Amino acid sequence: MTPEFQKLAAQLHHQFSNWSLVELALTHRSFIAENPGHDSNERLEFLGDSVVGLAVTSYSYDNYGDLPEGELAKLRASVVNTSSLASVAESMNLGAMLRLGKGEDSSGGREKESILADVFEAIIGAVFVDGGWEPARDSALFLLEETILESSRRPGGEDFKTRLQELTSVLNLPAPTYRLAATGPDHDRRFSAVAFVEGENFGEGRGTSKKRAEQAAAEAAWQVLSARGAQRTPATNAFEVTEDSNG
Predict the structure, then answer these.
(1) Are strands 190-197 and 200-207 parallel, antiparallel or unpaired?
(2) Are residues 187 and 149 in the same domain?
(3) CA 199/CA 85 separation, integer angstroms
(4) What separation in angstroms does the CA of 46 have from each of 34, 178, 222?
């Protein structure tokens, strides 16, 4: 086994008996097209998709007894989706470990959300094949619990990037933009983001993935805009602060 595989096992909190499953989970179909005789991770991804879905569903059912079925479904959908799973895969540095074909690699395949989400599901599928339901469930929840908790605190499962964009629309402002920066080695990347509205810095955030950093920046910006009661005046096309009627 390689040091990278050992780090991955530590992230999963699972010690593999069959390490070839890890290599298989990291093998994209584009690699197979250029290297016949190997198998791709598609079957493991198919399996892992169901394991992740059931793990999140079971966790939500057990921990959010006050939520009706519709809200539980929204919570699950806010966690089990391409963007969220890709964000977790990114924080695990799975993109750098992927076996890709040269064409896919050169076209930025290691950063594509669809590929990252699939490889995350394949890795969980590999844990299931290697150790069964409980280790696979525990691995999935260890990696996704923070995302579940974040989503449970959002009204209707909305994310702050969506809420900020809706707020700027209501205030007749252009859509927010984000600037990202990354620091640290590949196996321990940290991201920072700045949310801009009309070129002005309204919020900053940090996280272990691009998505989490942008979400944190969007939340900070949303809070600033909401607290200000910012509006665009027709005469100056600029922000004005609305005074609180109670203050």
Answers:
(1) antiparallel
(2) no
(3) 30
(4) 22, 34, 37
Catalytically active residues, by annotation: 49, 121
76 phi/psi in degrees, rounded to 5: -60, -45
Of 208, 95, 214, 210, the closest CA to residue 143 belongs to 208
Mean pLDDT of the chain: 86
Name the residue range of residue 232's domain: 160-240
Q: Are residues 177 and 103 in the same domain?
A: no
Of 156, 175, 200, which residue sits at a domain end? 156
Same domain for 236 and 186: yes
Query: How many Å is the maximal CA-CA distance in the chain?
Result: 73
Question: Residue 239: what pLDDT?
Answer: 44
Answer yes or no: do 145 and 167 share one domain.
no
Max mean pLDDT among 130-139, 144-153, 166-175 falls in 130-139
How do residues 48-73 score in pLDDT, each as one tens digit?
999 999 999 999 999 998 889 988 99
Is 128 found in the same domain as 83? yes
- Total residues belonging to the chain: 247
Q: How far apart are the first and last CA of the chain?
A: 65
